[in-house]
Predict the structure.
Amino acid sequence: MHYIEDLVHCSIEVLDRRFPDGDDRVRDLITALYEFQNDFDCSHTQHRVMDILIRRGHTLRVPVAEHPDYAERREFFDGITGFTELREFDEDEEEFAGALEDGYVDPPWLHAEAGTALWRRMAGPDAPGPRPVRFLDVVVAVAGAAERDGDVELIADWWALGHHVLVGGHPFSVEELSETPGVEELRAIVRRTGAHHVELRDGNRPDDDELARLDDELTTWWYQLD
């Protein structure tokens, strides 16, 4: 889904621009963004922001010959001529954990993402991995960075995904949804920037007629900010 891929791509760029160098939170946020992207039918897009991923400590990139198993599997590694994910478990197997757990090769480089099995082998068992971040907190961080960057459309694109995607769960009332940590902070950013008035592609955000047809109190509250 190009929409999600572009959303994640732009979010990583704005986080990098607006968070100080050396701020470990950026790696945590990037990790969460790619976990979100992996829930959709998206392509591998890390190459689009690889310089940021390396600089922010999300991705370790070294020559293929530095793989811990290179000496034992030299013929295999030397035979890789294009982008190759190294995880050999099938998706249905318990050990799968993710296609990038054992890293990937994009010749001449080997890549290991922070927190994955290969990264832990290479960085050492005591190296601190990414910390889990609640997804709405990720979106609020991106929206705050986008506000400082003047990127109102990025805020609008995230907000348009709605509470089902950004908050999740099953709130029973507007009051419960509004009291969810981060919800009012995101709504305040949307209001301040006027992101709720940004024109988006058809279908990306319900208009008033669609909200009336949906007849859903929570969805109407989420989208009607004026």
